[in-house]
Every structure is written in structure tokens, then in C-alpha cells.
Amino acid sequence: MKRSCSTTSDDSEEEIIVVKKKPHQDAASKIDLRINEESISDTDEDDDDEEHITEGRSSSNFPTRLGKCEVCAAHEARYTCPKCEVKTCCLNCVRIHKKELECDGIRDRTKFIPLKEMTKMDFMSDYYFLEECTRYVEDRKVDRVKRYTRFNTELPVHLYRLRQAAKERKCTLKILIQNFARHKENTTYYDWKTKKIWWRIKWVFVNAGNLCYVDEKCLEDEYLRDLLKKYVDKDCVEPVVEKKKLEFYQSKGVQGLKVMLKSEGIKGCKNRYYLLDVNKTLRSNLKNKTLVEYPFIYVSYEDDPCGFEIIDSDEDVETETKQHQDQLEQYRKAALEKQKRQQQAGSEDDDEEEGDLAKDAETLAKLQAENRRKERRRKREEYEKQQSNNFLFTDEQLMEALSSSTEDEEGEGS
Question: Which member of 6, 22, 349, 405 has the greatest number of CB atoms within 10 A?
Fold first, then answer.
């Protein structure tokens, strides 16, 4: 039997259906309601636990195999950094460890692992790494832009002739790979008909805020003073951009300037420069020099420019290497002679032997430095007699200061 009725209120309307049930059905419905209420409460508790875990803090105090967090040392660690293997417990600790240790979290694929500790995953990682290297090399061979990975091979005909012509003039010319900007902007070429080299020169005026000028074509037979004339001479009609900044150079004149060539391919070439003679041709100034693409010439009106170490043309890599080898050979001979004398006279303590050998080596180095100093002075005196009209080399004290810089370095290196 069913009975329905409807009730109205201010808030809502409900239709009540009354169903007459048996007593055992009423008990079963009550049990079902209790079970539903318990399941709802269980799901709420599980959601709370999941939210607590996402915050990075484990609710249980059971220890893990990683141990305590190495950053906060308050909770159990749950993460390991692939690079530095630092154990952390949450995202905040991960960020702190990356900031303090300057770690990027990327695993080092070339890290040394002892053979006993290597696993199957380590072998597979090395195998994949070698495969990537092979693909990289194959891509470079196919790509026409990136295939020039070897130095000075497969040069075009005009560059090969240019390098050979410079070699005939006792000038070592090194040509960069074609992707370098310095190679792209180089306009130096060798005229096959006239057998002359037209150089590209970059002038850097040090005392004018490193003001740079570029001459695209400079014949090798021209004098250096003639090439500088349009920048330094006031009466020169040829237009030059920002020539007003060179007023101090113009007041000094060409003969009162320091003209230096940037050294290339020698020991400590960053601050070393060759001193050039403005009364000689460009060809004679570049003799026995090493150039990369084209010369960089620095101009200063100071007698002793700061940060510029003047060296001679004979101080190249081969000469310095040979001097070092000679010093080692002489030291070895002195050590052998000392050992023979000690065997004849009797055995001595090891400390005394080492001290005597060191003293002999210092004495030998001082003698070599003194001989080189005398030889350098003799060469400069001969040069001053031959070039008496050159105003750059009239100050004897300046020349001694210039020559002593390299001598002191050789004495310290020995």
C-alpha cells in the first residue's frame, strides 16, 4: 500500500512517498546506512593522508634505505641527486642543495666508476653515449658547413698560394677555418702576376680609446710610415673618420710613435708584442713573424706603454723550447758529474745532495742569463750603429728596459 503526499514550505518543495515495509527490511536498511557512513569517513582520511604526503613529509617514522635527509636532517630521505648523490626529502631541500653546491642535477655521463661497482645500467649508459658520439661525427661529415674540423687542410688554391708566398718571405701565415669571423673578413690576397702580397691591416690606436681602423689593401713594399701618414699627418688630404681623436698622435709625429705587432703562436702571447720599424717596409717588418689571417698593429705615443711587453723576433716557440731543452740537458750533465764526484769522495746524506744539485742548477741558470744579457746588448749596439737615423732607438735606457723584461722572465723560468 502506497500513500503520497506533498508539503510546501518557504524554502523547497518535497514529495514524500511512504512505502510500507516489513520489519526485517528496515533493519537491513539501517545496516547499509552505517556501512556507507564508515566508508565515507575512511575515504576522507585517505585524502588527508595523500595531501600530507604531497607536502613532502612522511607521516610515518619508519627509516628508509636512504637514511636521513642530508639538508635538513629532520626527515627520512626520499630522493637522490643524479649528479652529486645528495639525499633529500622534499622539493625545498632539493632547491637548497642545488643553490649551495651549485649543482644542476644532471648526471655526469663520463664520471669514473670502478669496474667492480659497474652495473648493467652503467654499461648500457656507456653504450648509448658511444652511439651518440658516432652519430655526431657522422653528422659533421655530411654537413658541408661543419666538415672542416682539421686545421689548414684542403685549402683553396688562392689561399695555398698565399701561404706559400708568405713562407718564402719567412713569414708564418696561419689560416683559420672558414666559419671563423676573422677568416671571413680577411681580404689579404696574393697577386700571381706581380708576385706581390696585398695585406689587410687592422690599426689599433691605444691612447685614443683603442680606436680601430682597417686598411683593406696594403702593398707589402710600402713603408710603414707611409701607411700611417693618413692617420698621423695633419696635412694629409685623405679623409679619416674621427681624426680629431688622434691629435696627440699628430703632435708626436710618425717618428715618435711606438708601432707594435700583436704576437701570435708564442708562449704568453696575450700581452707580448713585436716592435716594428716605421722606416722599413711592411715586408721586412713581417719577416720572422707569425700571423693569423692578417696583422694587428697597435700604435701608441708613450715611450713605455702599460700592458705591452716588447719582445724580439727571435723569441718564438721553437727558440724557447730549444733553450728549455738545453737547460735540462745541462742540468742532467751537471747532476751526473756531481754524482760521480760523490761516489769517489764517499756517500753523503740525500738532503745535502739535493741541496747541492739545486745550487748548481741556480748557478748554471744565472750564468746562462748573464750570457744572454751580454749577447742581447751586443746585438742592440750593432743595431743602433746601423740605424742611427731611427729615432725610436736613441734612448739607451729604454732599450735596456725593453730587453730586461724578457731576460727576467727567462731567469725566473729557469
Answer: 405
Q: What is the mean pLDDT of each run of 10 residues along the chain (414 residues)?
A: 42 41 45 44 44 43 76 90 90 91 87 88 91 87 62 74 91 86 91 92 90 91 90 83 86 86 79 87 90 91 81 60 74 82 68 66 80 78 63 51 54 51
At 205, which amino acid appears?
F
**Bridge partners, 68 (sequence order):** 76
Radius of gyration over every alpha carbon of the chain, rounded to an integer in angstroms? 41
The CB-side HSE value for 208 (13 A sphere, CA atoms) comes to 21
Measured from the Cβ of residue 404, the count of other Cβ atoms closer than 10 Å reads 13
Three-state SS sequence of the chain: CEEEEEEECCCCEEEEEEECCCHHHHHHHHHHHHHHHHHHHHHHHHHHHHHHHHCCCCCCCCCCCCCECCCCCCCECCEECCCCCCEECCHHHHHHHHHHHCCCCCCCCCCCCCHHHCCHHHHHHHHHHHHHHHHHHHHHHHCCCCCCCCCCCCCCHHHHHHHHHHHHCCCEEECCCCCCHHHHCCCCEEECCCCEEEEEEEEEEHHHCCEEEEEEEEECCCEHHHHHHHHHCCCCCCCCCCHHHHHHHHHHCHHHCEEEEECCCCCCCCCEEEECCCCCEHHHHCCCCEEECCCEEEEECCCCCCCCEEECCCCCHHHHHHHHHHHHHHHHHHHHHHHHHHHHHCCCCHHHHHHHHHHHHHHHHHHHHHHHHHHHHHHHHHHHHHCCCCHHHCCHHHHHHHHHHHHHHHHHHC
Confidence (pLDDT) at 329 = 81
